[in-house]
Write a structure and sequence with these properties.
The chain is an alpha/beta fold and about 250 residues long. The protein has a single domain, classed as NAD(P)-binding Rossmann-like Domain (Rossmann fold, 3-Layer(aba) Sandwich). The chain is about 50% helix and about 15% strand. A seven-stranded parallel β-sheet has the order 3-2-1-4-5-6-7, sandwiched between helices. α1 packs parallel to α2, α1 crosses α9 and α4 runs parallel beside α6. The two termini are about 30 Å apart. The relative contact order is 0.14. The protein binds NADP nicotinamide-adenine-dinucleotide phosphate.
Amino acid sequence: MQDLKGRVAVVTGGSRGIGRHIALQLAQRGADVAINYRSRQSDADEVIKEIEATGVRAMAIKADLSTMPAARGMIKKVHEDWGRIDILVNNAGITRDKSMRKLTDDDWNEVLDTNLGSVYATCSEVLNIMLEQKYGRIINITSFVGQAGNFGQANYAASKGGIIAFTKTLALEAAKHNITVNAIAPGFTETEMLAQVPENIREQIVARVPMGRFGQPEEIARAVVFLAAEGDYITGQQINVNGGVYM
Ligand SMILES: NC(=O)c1ccc[n+]([C@@H]2O[C@H](COP(=O)([O-])OP(=O)(O)OC[C@H]3O[C@@H](n4cnc5c(N)ncnc54)[C@H](OP(=O)(O)O)[C@@H]3O)[C@@H](O)[C@H]2O)c1
């Protein structure tokens, strides 16, 4: 199905993990896809090849989104080159897990700047473009941790909770202009982010998941593509794709 043909999509952190699958599934539906990454160019190159193999245009932009000028610059670059941006998926994110007694100001700032500051900056920059087009689909990747909290993740939980509140507010402000803004809240999903967690803790985590397994990145991506392609009357929502770990 090529129902996104002619659409331009931007996926932050699209070089691996969940973002890679979002980028590939958007391309398979016909959208031209720009991916962003911070440092691992070989991963980005691989994804670019995979996107191009579907017959659409692909672009990779190296930018550290923890700084707002870089995040704004990435949006400007796609708009300058391709003339429009229809779909923005804010997926880039990091963890710096420590209990509050050990958490440093740097741990706090790095996670808030990367996970939440980047969402503000890209949305702020893309808003005028989408207003002019009278069309936009913004999908922000939060986490069930932003709803439930999680031991050792005060910084991450605050960033992800902030994304949910930000998403609802922007949805209200943009709704009249045919711009929808939604969030996807994954549960524990098998990517390098989860691989950082020690094996014994991973076993404890999976025991908490009612479906008895971790999510796969392609399962998260399917919900994103649903909102982008078929979510015309859905805005201000968060869709939980979490195997029941938070209800
Ligand atoms: N995995 C989970 O269990 C889980 C659960 C809930 C929510 N999430 C959320 O889902 C999203 C994707 O997670 P993931 O597990 O796929 O992560 P991942 O495998 O660690 O991939 C992270 C991606 O973000 C990019 N990135 C990181 N920092 C960046 C920065 N400062 N500027 C630009 N790009 C940056 C990375 O690029 P480089 O490779 O170049 O560094 C990479 O493409 C995140 O927002 C995460 O919080 C994940």
